[in-house]
Amino acid sequence: RMEGYGSYTLPTGTEYRGSLWDGMFHGKGELLLPTGGSYRALWDRGVVTQGKYTFADGLEHDEEKWRYCDGYDRRFYTEICSGFKPPGIPQLTNLDPPKIIPEGCYDCGDGFYDPKTRVVVDYKRKFLRNADDEEHEWILRTCRKAWVITTEQKPKP
């Protein structure tokens, strides 16, 4: 069994770096996610006793003092750090410029969703999961969709 300090890569691509005891995460360690986020924690025989998640853009999740997108302040984290863009220039996602969504798909936050196949792939087009009915409806209702661009001229009113 693994013991001491080391690293272990899970089949999902997530990597653990830290202390191991009897084959379990034990002591200080960090999970590095393929999406760029990380979770630093103190582990006790494979169970987290305390930890903090940091998103890929540097935003740290604070369970007790979470103020990001709380209903009163709807700014993206990059807007909090760098300020607003000039009027007339929208910022549609925290990532600016936003990812270009493939035709007929939705940007669901961790990748693209194709409602025809009901498959979510990451931004590099690697399979993540199949969406169940609940997630399918949520994505269609709330997520940003690829623009449908037509070439025909519409008459002015």
Overview of the structural elements:
The chain has about 160 residues and is mainly beta. Among the domains are: about 50 residues; about 45 residues, no CATH class. About 10% of the residues lie in helices and about 30% in strands. The protein contains 2 helices and 10 strands. Strand 1 and strand 2 form a beta hairpin. The model has no long low-confidence stretch (mean pLDDT about 85). It is found in: Cell projection, Cilium, Flagellum.
The run of helices and strands is EEEEEHEEEEHE
Strand order of the largest sheet: 1-2-3-4-5
Tell me about the largest β-sheet: 5 strands, antiparallel
Mean pLDDT: 85
Based on helices, strands and strand pairing, what is the structural class?
mainly beta
Spans of at least 5 consecutive residues with low confidence: none
Distance between the termini: 74 Å
Strand coverage percent: 25-35%
Record field, number of beta strands: 10
Number of helices: 2
- Proportion of residues in helical segments: 10-25%
What general outline do the C-alpha atoms trace?
globular
Q: What's the gyration radius in Å?
A: 20 Å
InterPro entries: MORN (IPR003409), Morn5 (IPR042814)
Keywords: Cell projection, Cilium, Flagellum, Repeat
Pfam families: MORN (PF02493)
Protein name: MORN repeat-containing protein 5
